[in-house]
């Protein structure tokens, strides 16, 4: 279902992937610095989640300014929260690369503003922890503030997220967290000798099983 979400004086293009049965939880998903919501990895994940009963709303926000991207993400969260069509108990914020930075930033901002528990967790696909070859400056400040569960799915050969550095940041985080390493994958999740579909299957299954664990924990 295509929708246009009001954002300032313009609109954000977004698409709902809707499960057959009514969903109580949703995932909001966005893209990295390049591309848009039709980036193949996002389309694949959204379809997988919807086929497993989780509503997925993915949206496009062009712009390389992290504050702008964060503002857009926050607008989408509010939009879904107030939606009459999909009454959800909670959502997980997810993004690829810069999109996951924006998601982390939204969670930090919202947690400082109110303590409702609409946001249940964060999924970071290829979180860009540092610029290539610039390991001394880590983009970890939002991560260290977050308290809700966090899943990282990163390539072990990601030039923007060195393995030891992410593990170091994770060990300092207060939030319950999990890292799933895609063996030999780079920042774009490409792995020599594996097809994109094969890699995506691994990512999608990991994301879904983590969501399911966290939704089940809620119900216990």
UniProtKB/TrEMBL annotation:
InterPro entries with a match to the protein in the record: AB_hydrolase_fold, KANL3/Tex30_Abhydrolase, NSL3/Tex30
The protein, known as: TEX30 protein
Pfam families per record: Abhydrolase_11 (PF20408)
PANTHER family, per the entry: TESTIS DEVELOPMENT PROTEIN PRTD, TESTIS-EXPRESSED PROTEIN 30
Ranges where the KANL3/Tex30 alpha/beta hydrolase-like domain occurs: 27-209
């Amino acid at each position: 279902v295509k929708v246009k979400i009001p954002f300032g004086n313009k609109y954000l293009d977004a698409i709902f992937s809707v499960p057959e049965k009514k969903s109580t939880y949703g995932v909001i998903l966005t893209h990295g610095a390049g591309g848009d919501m039709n980036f193949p990895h996002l389309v694949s994940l959204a379809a997988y989640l919807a086929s497993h009963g989780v509503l997925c709303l993915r949206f496009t926000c062009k712009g390389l300014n992290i504050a702008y991207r964060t503002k857009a993400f926050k607008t989408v969260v509010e939009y879904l929260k107030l939606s009459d069509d999909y009454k959800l108990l909670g959502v997980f914020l997810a993004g690829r690369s810069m999109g996951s930075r924006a998601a982390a930033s939204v969670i930090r901002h919202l947690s400082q503003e109110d303590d409702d528990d609409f946001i249940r967790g964060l999924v970071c696909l290829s979180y860009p922890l540092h610029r290539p070859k610039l390991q001394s400056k880590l983009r970890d400040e939002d991560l260290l503030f977050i308290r809700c569960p966090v899943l990282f799915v990163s390539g072990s050969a990601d030039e923007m997220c060195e393995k030891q550095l992410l593990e170091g940041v994770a060990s300092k985080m207060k939030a319950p967290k999990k890292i799933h390493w895609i063996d030999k994958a780079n920042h774009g999740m490409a792995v020599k000798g594996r097809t994109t579909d094969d890699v995506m299957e691994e990512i999608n299954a990991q994301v879904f099983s983590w969501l399911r664990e966290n939704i089940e924990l809620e119900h216990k």
